[in-house]
Structures are given as structure tokens and as C-alpha cells.
Amino acid sequence: MTADFLFSLANSIALLGWIILAVGIVWNKPFLRDAVAGRFFPLGLSVLYTILIGAFFFRAEGGFDTLANVQKLFTFPWAALAGWVHNLAFDLFMGAVISRDMMKLSISRLFLIVLLPLTFMFGPIGYVVFVILRTALAKKEIAA
Q: Quick check: 105 and 134 in contact, CB under 8 A?
């Protein structure tokens, strides 16, 4: 099994998780949104990440102590793959958390049209925009 194969597989798994998340939102199916897309898929990706770190992390040069060492670490394909899988798992998990919180707070699902792609592509930016939106809407409710 090659790093390229696992890269493609992880991307496909993450994309399927995002599709299930969207279906769970559109069909208002909390089980799909929370359990399947929000826990099962991120857990599977996290297991893959754990295996990759266990098998390859200590074979790579570099580390986390300087930017130069992080760059060196990610020149090793298996370490780069582990880093990518880490992002896939965490971004999907955060997308589900954002979606669940929005439903719990009765915030319109229409905002997810912007928030989920932001979270999918630029994880922390989607979360920042969500927190700003949630805060703004809470202040608006208090003022009303």
C-alpha cells in the first residue's frame, strides 16, 4: 500500500463524510449529522492517523520545534500524509460540531451554505466565522 493510495482513500472517506453531513442537515437527521459524519468518520480517519504516526513518525527527519524542522518533517511523504489525514479528521469533526450547535441554537441552516465549505477548505476560518455569527445573533436576540 502506497502513501498515494492512502491519500486518495482518506480523501474519499472524508468527502463521503461531508456528503453524509450535508444529507443529515438537509433531511434533518441528527443521527447522520452527529453520529455518522460527526463521530464515526472522524474516528476512522483518526485511527488511520494514529497508525500512520505510529508506523512512520519516528522515521522522518525534522520535528515540531522550529518551522524549518516542520518543513523538513513534511518532506517525508508518510508524515505529510499523516498531517493531511489529521486535517481531514479535525475539519469534518468541526463541521459536525458547528452544524449541531447551529441546530441546537435554532440558527438558520442557510448559514451553513457558507460555513461548511469554509470549514471543509479552511477549517479554522469556518470555526471563526461560526463563532462570530453565533455571537452576533446572540447579541441581536438579547437586544430584541
A: yes
